[in-house]
Design a protein that fits this description.
The complex is a heterodimer of chains A (300) and B (261). Chain A has 300 residues and is an alpha/beta fold. The longest helix of chain A has 16 residues. Chain B has 261 residues and is mainly α. The longest helix of chain B has 34 residues. Classes of the chains: A alpha/beta (300), B mainly alpha (261). At the A-B interface, helix 3 of A face helix 1 and helix 6 of B.
Chain lengths: 300, 261
Amino acid sequence: MTGTAAIVTDGLTKRYGGRIAVDRLSMAVPAGQVTGFVGPNGAGKSTTIRMLLSLIRPTAGSATVFGRSLADAATYLTWVGALVESPALYPRLSGRDNLGVLGRLAGNTSRIDQVLETVGLTDRAGDAVGTYSLGMRQRLAIAAALLPDPRLVILDEPANGMDPEGIRDIRRLLRGLAERGVTAFVSSHQLSEVEQVCDHIVLLRTGRLLYQGSLTELTSLHQPQMTARPDDPAQLDALAHLARAQGWTVGVDRDAIVVNGPPATLNRLAHQHDITLAHLSTRPLTLEEIFFRLTQKDGI
Amino acid sequence: MVAAFLSEMVKLRQRTYWLMAAVMVAFMAITMVMSISGAGDAPSDRGPAGLVLALQQLQASDGLGRSLGNAATFLGIVAVTLIALNVGGEYDHGTLRNLLVRQPRRIRLLGGKTAALMSFLAGTTIVTGLAGVGMAHLLASNVDTTAWQTRDGLTATTAGVAGLTAAVLGWASLGVLAGILLRSAAIAIGAAVAYALPVEILLTVVAGDVARWLPGQLFQALARGGTPDVNPTTALLGSAAWATAAMLLAALIFRHRDVTN
């Protein structure tokens, strides 16, 4: 499956009156990988997901899922499992009956026990969902998404309400799905989680595509963050001045400066100005840092 | 559509539905107390509670069948509440999203869902009607029930239960429309009950000639085997027209409107 696209959108647009929720979105989600769908609130992630799930109709543009157009959603949705926004469940029915509702609708109830075990809810399957914690409801909603043995899972904020163990389980689940060739398209605000589990990123802001590609490529597009500490604290301001003169963005963190620039250049400059560096280190930007940079300005 | 029907049947395991069924039986009990124990020398129009027959009319072969129809408005309100709770609740809980992902052919989903709910209501109304027959016999210590036991009497009672069931299903179709149109259980129930009681009653007072064509009046006439204003055939055709129009409009909206809840 890897190498082909599971989801392709072309100029996909959704307007509500004068407000544009999704603006000419063209993206490709590779098959058999975990793709993170990232953007601030109101970026258009949920609207895009709803269009792909045939819950809302696009105003313009087109999309295909496994080569089938949105008009043929009845065909491709048999291969899709989805969790859209918060877990939507019947609180007075048991966990098992909630899955039974969806299983019967799809004409297949044979996987209910299996998916309950996958999400660790077998012991509570007979209890009313109204007695579940938020994390348990989230697990059950994920079980519902896995029920049709999907080729594509679309999960909107799957780690919401989860404890650290639950988040780790989601991570394992997503990796496990990708290893089996299942495509996972995961919308999330927990960027550290996205970073740990995703191969590919689609980044939206105000309905527009900001970036799509591999996570590695996105990281490499941004200068690593460098921390430099002068041996003599009195030279901190002078060091910061030198860095600013290079056009770099400079921050001061106690007795060190934090800049984005090549370490060799800074080291040479410091040496030329008789500043001895007691510490010089670099680290790649986290997805969260890149995310904030991208969403606070217009481009990469 | 069969899959949607079977899926909906799972939801009927919720206690809410059986509580509603119990409420229907309770309303029938109240109706029977009023209609049997309250029968006097002259008939008495009780508005939404129907027409309490004179004792002589009550003792006729169709007396029981006509009296069962007095429960139509109250059972109808329970039906419209139950349906609006179900349909509006799918929007409230967001569960409609899950259903539509599993069955994107919306008319099939709505058809199966409605068929399951209507089947439940039909069964519940028939059981409620039969319970009403039993209660009537228990309450009829001062009523001669001989005519009720005759072939004509049994036929009229059966027609009474059938008319009541049809009226309840008519109300239910309005519940489907309210749930889909308003996308909220609470708002749909409020609007449906407000219409069924104060609004339609006020309309019958201020515009009686026109008001007899309103759905509640036609459903009640259907359940009672006709009223002085509406004959049985008109009641049947008018009720069918309202129910069909409500279902078609509901289907049209459901088919085309975005699901944003």
